[in-house]
Amino acid sequence: MLRRLLFGGLVLALVVSAAAVATAWEPDRSVSSLTARWAPPPSRFVEVEGLAVHVRDVGPRDDEAPLVLLHGTSASLHTWEGWVERLSPTRRVVTLDLPGFGLTGTARDDDVTVARTLVILEALLAKLGLKQVVLGGNSYGGHLAWAYAVKHPEQVTRLILVDAAGYPRAERSLPLGFRLAATPGLRRLMEVLLPRGVVEQSVRNVYGDPSKVTPELVDRYFELTLREGNRRAVGLRFAQLASPVDTAPLKTLAVPTLILWGAKDELIPLESGRRFDADLPDSELVVFDALGHVPHEEDAAATAAVVLRWLAAGATERGL
Fold first, then answer.
1. 176 phi/psi in degrees, rounded to 5
2. Tens digit of pLDDT for each residue in 300-319?
3. Cβ atoms of 289 and 263 closer than 8 Å
4. What is the pTM of this model?
5. Which is nearest to 102 in space by CA: 187, 228, 18?
6. Left if phi > 0, otherwise alpha if psi is -120 to 50, otherwise beta: which for 285?
7. pLDDT 10s digits, 89-140
8. Paired sense of beta strands 283-288 and 67-70, if any
9. CA distance 165 to 276
10. CA 61 – CA 302 distance, rounded (Å)
11. How far is the C-alpha of 320 from the C-alpha of 317, rounded, in Å?
12. Does residue 213 lie in a domain region?
């Protein structure tokens, strides 16, 4: 009788596990299957360094220093839609899906290092004819933004860092999806399994007010994560995070910089924002008490208003 009970329990466990796997099974989706929903006009794809980079370029064509905005890990150009709506009436704004994310996907060599991404960004700006830019970025995109400014200070007229990465990791809470991607034993499994609930929990984790996370927002993050190659790219990015980042050049980066931070950011806490403010020679730190790791997405109106004020003040200083 005991053997029968044990055997029955084992069979039930296997059935439940198989059902769970079947429910979570999510194969990659082709970029063509996602384009209609996530790349309507004015989206276009620009061929750069062997990649078809998903780009949106809107606003006045006579802007001498267009804004170029870079998203964070597992995000896409859509994260800036609220800013684009508010900034593009007076400024040219370029947003893009970084290599390994959104609809751009990864190169054939799977190189998603910061160094390689900076090369791709440089080539893209050249192809768009952008000789000078205001460069902004959130999280990983913030790291890319300041690293690009260090490499090309003559091209970056102003810098916007939104809960930017760069200093040693000190997260107080890591989204579930990131925890899975950071675990070597689970990383490959997550390339074929992705419960939608994992994505929802992860997005809620980076909001100061999780009630603002809508089903439509989760849909966007979920579907674009499934773009072929993106889950592997996230795993590769986390494998690189153990390497130290040289932030010493920030102390000599004489580019006017606006630092925006959500006080409720548990992924890259405010201490990092204060370090950027202390290290950068010409910076202004603005903290939003109620917002989290993606303040530009969580409250586009409040954050974009600060950007517009800062840009206007800079234009006044230059006598424009």
1. -55, -45
2. 999 999 999 999 998 766 55
3. yes
4. 0.88
5. 228
6. beta
7. 999 999 999 999 999 988 778 888 999 999 999 999 999 999 999 999 999 9
8. unpaired
9. 10
10. 26
11. 8
12. no
